[in-house]
Amino acid sequence: DVPKIYVITPTYARLVQKAELTRLSHTFLHVPQLHWIVVEDAPQPTPLVTDFLAASGLTYAHLHKLTPKDRKLQEGDPSWLKPRGAEQRNEGLRWLREMGAAAEGKEAAALEEAVVYFADDDNTYSLQLFEEIRYTYRVSVWPVGLVGGMKFERPVVEDGKVVRFHTGWHPNRPFPIDMAGFAVSLRLILTNPQARFDGDAQMGFLESSFLQHLVTMDDLEPKADLCTKVLVWHTRTEKPKMKREDTLQKQGLGSDPDVEV
Ligand code: UDP
Ligand code: MN
User: Where UDP-alpha-D-glucuronate is bound, by residue (predicted)?
Assistant: First the structure.
């Protein structure tokens, strides 16, 4: 068998959630040996995600971890104020380490080869990306499109090595890489139990807070034709307007709440 890809996806309830998860799952259904770790930002698993996953046709783990209120963006806060999805990604890491500790024999050997990727629910992923990252010895990296106020950000490769980063902002961060731009071998995650995302990290430092525990720039493995191809896009979905829904609701004519959207 080819190495497994464990994909950790934080997700939270909002109008577009099921649409995002549908799109994402239809990508993942095309990827062999993918195990989806879905972590809801919720106090308990929701019926929507529970039913969705059961019908998805994917192999998955369904977890939940509520972001504490003081760590969550409040209505009206600028979007850069607090990192999103940190607690959920850490919960995914916890699950992996628990699974890793329990594995024996052939199962444990297979985990040695596996790779972990953090896939937000709203990005757009090329199928080719997964074949690029499947063979990751430590940490692999590649360009991300439409991110950081740029057409793309990417590691710059010279003589097969990452020497710096093409980014519009704070290039001297330890790892100026978007969450969508790296994958980590499961072995490295299991042998470095202290590696986690710092939910209090400054804007743009969440990825660094995790990767610093695992590698140096010298270790990074460039993928996607030496980081010359964009295979993932940091797309964001517009919040749907509910103006007419609100008006109708006041007249008692809102959309049937029993219909799941
Ligand atoms: N997310 C979450 N709880 C929140 C906000 C976001 O679990 O309160 C998840 C979201 O579903 C996504 C990830 O965290 O998978 C990153 O969030 P978002 O896409 O909003 O961040 P951005 O694209 O703006 O960096
Ligand atoms: Mn996003």
Answer: 10-12, 41, 84, 89, 120-122, 234-236
10 Å CB burial of residue 182 (0-12, 13-18, 19+) is buried
Phi, psi dihedral angles at 192 (to 5 degrees): -125, 70
Contacts of 205 (CB under 8 A, 6+ apart): 173, 174, 198
Percentages helix, strand, coil for the chain, rounded to the nearest 5?
35, 20, 45
Residue 145 alpha carbon to ligand 2 centre in Å:
12
Residues in the chain: 261
In percent, the amount of the chain with pLDDT more than 90 equals 92
Nearest ligand to the C-alpha atom of residue 86: 1
| 75 catalytically annotated | no
Number of H helices and E strands in the chain, helices first, is 9, 12
- Ligand 1: which atom is nearest the Cα of residue 73? 8
pLDDT attached to residue 77: 75
pLDDT at 17: 98
Per-residue pLDDT tens over the stretch 5-61: 999 999 999 999 999 999 999 999 999 999 999 999 999 999 999 999 999 999 999
> In what side-by-side order are the strands of the sheet with 161-166?
124-125, 232-233, 144-147, 150-158, 161-166
In angstroms, the CA 179 to CA 234 distance is: 9
